[in-house]
């Protein structure tokens, strides 16, 4: 009989003026963790990881909007870990100072280089945990989600929310791409838990039943 792996450790912070949810997921055997989006409160995030005796190994960015990268300069500098992001969001990343001004964020420090490009279908690991990268554009050209199939978890950034979806009226967004991405997410098992970039957790099944945008728009 296959031995069941212990449940991962998941930490959640809600940060910044847009109440952005950022996450850390850690393997309980190795205590290795990744941060999913570095949206702010860098010192709090780093302290909480240390207090939990977790070793940060990487930052995985779902996309490059300012509320998801505002803490990245400080976190990358303090930890020295590599940063992963989809290359289609590089124009947004380079425009971070303009984004900060537009949305009322404090001026950023120097943005770190993106160490690794994410691509659709790519496998990422942290300790014993394994995630598949799903490229789900629409909210931004390079939006991705991280699907932990064995755990039934999907960290989706700003693609799908409880009862709603990410904005499609921003530079680089696309209604057509969002429709295609939502159709793709419908193929995940209904029990898959969605941990979004804003608001409460939900499930794919819940959103298929009650989210009007999953019915077509």
TrEMBL record:
Gene3D superfamilies in alphabetical order: Ribonuclease Z/Hydroxyacylglutathione hydrolase-like (3.60.15.10)
Alphabetically ordered keywords of this record: Hydrolase, Metal-binding, Zinc
Required cofactor(s): Zn(2+)
Keyword Metal-binding: yes
Ranges of residues in domain Metallo-beta-lactamase: 19-198
Entry's Gene Ontology molecular function annotations: hydrolase activity; metal ion binding
Protein name: MBL fold metallo-hydrolase
Organism: Lujinxingia vulgaris
